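A common beginner's mistake is to predict each chain separately and then try to dock the pieces by hand. The better habit, illustrated here, is to supply every component at once so that their relative placement is modeled jointly.
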Amino acid sequence: MTVWCLVELDGDAAADASLRALTLARGLLPDGADGGGVAAVVFGPPPLADLAAYGAADVYVVSGVDGYAPQAWARALTELLGAGRGPDGPRPAVVAAGTEHGNEVLAHLGAITGLPMAANCVAVSASGGTALDLVRQRWAGLLLEEAVLEAPAALLTVATDAVAAAPAAAPVSVTVHEVAAAVTGADLAVRAVETPGGTGGVSLATARVVVGGGRGVGSAEGFAPLEELAALLGGVVGASRVVTSEGWRPHSMQVGQTGTKITPDLYLACGISGAIQHFAGCSGARHIIAINTDASAPMMTRADYAVAGDLHEVLPALIEALRARG
Amino acid sequence: MDILVCVKRVPTVGGAITLTADSRAIDTKASGFTISPHEECAVEEAVRLVERFGGSVTIVSLGPVEAEEQLRAGLALGASAAVLVETAPGVETGPMATAAALYSVAASGAFDLILLGNEASDTGGYQVGIRLAHLLGRPVATGAKAITVTDDGSSLSASRSYRGVTETFTLPLPCLVTVKEGINLPRYPSLPGRLRAKRAAIKRIPVEATGTAPAGDVRMTRLRVPDAPRKQATVLGHGAAAVPALVAVLAEIGVIS
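With all components supplied together, the output reads:
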């Protein structure tokens, strides 16, 4: 059985969300698959070191699609899936990251092939026979669904904030296959034209440090110390739903179920009480520090570290201390 | 411009999610229901486009008879007609079956634009809009945070942010777009709007009458609330006096050297 994994790029490297997808994909390989690994699919220059480390023994580099065109990417995957499958062969799987791109491409693949698709899985295992047992996120991870997927091929995306990226026990040697996508004009009709965003290239979803502000920030102007601190730490500013509803910051900065899911090393939550919809967006943070005047706020009790106090007192003092360190 | 908007009735989730005894649904005895947030914005976007171009907004929901409440909420925002594809109470419809049922409504009218939410807030399947587009043979863009329609109404561009970059997709009409919260701020329904919505007739179609065969969707066996992931927080102190401890933690985590 072939386990395909769509790998997205972040600069020259594999995107963090794709490393998580590769990790889950590797778990679908049958035990003792000698030399057989995951078959990575890349639309661009392949990040070979990452792919070797994560057990992608075969790498399919697809040409013929310039940039991001979701239906064309799905068409290329459809062909790979069809080519590697005999009528009685073991059932293959296609895995992608649960990103906007990953979910979108696999939904197109599901629509083209008539196969079901399970979005944002956190665990998958073979349950004997032809079915897969899976656990996937609902409510952006506030609720988990246990489900059975029975299909000629399994289409899965992997939650970006719940499966830890883990390299293979030993790096594999990688064989690169160049393939040309046989796509139609209709497949290429909807394609992304990219223009620089307003965040200086660091996106909320992939930032290593996020400084979040909530109701406690008090006003649009109140974000100044958060922005200064984020700049000092090489991070970006996020916001709660209250903040974007008040218009203090644009919705693009919203962390939460209907905003962005973040996976930083540090989430510094300032003046955020911590509604469960907000936790749906930030529970993938490795460390959470909360600053709040209300020590009983959910964010203060569920964080790793808490500072009781007014963020407008704590943040300027913290900025001063960091500047003093040089 | 004639626009179809697909909306879903979802529970209003407050402090914590509790499940029914059989663990197959959210216990909604103490909670209300709402239109899934992305889709409320889809209704608002449709109403704004019709205010500019003229035409009509039809909203459709696949769900139990109670979903009429969400259809009336959409009518109050300015939609002109509503269709309920009625399912049996307590039966969950998977994304493939949902797309197939919505297709029968979408194909029955000459809609220039079909809007959906990017994903339903409850089941989060991320696929109904795309599957519906393929059934209709129309182009689709997803996750739109902005839609700009050309003055002649012949094409639109849909944009979103991805990895710090703005992606813009240009599509000819007729087409589908799925939108995300933040594309607009939905208006409060006016009093005349609410009165009109209360009296409006809602067309009801039993899902069986859409002639869609059961689809091979992923089968849910049970739901569970994830374990609370965090331990009790370590209190670093009060106010500015906590700063030295805070700096030490930042160094320990490795975000400062």
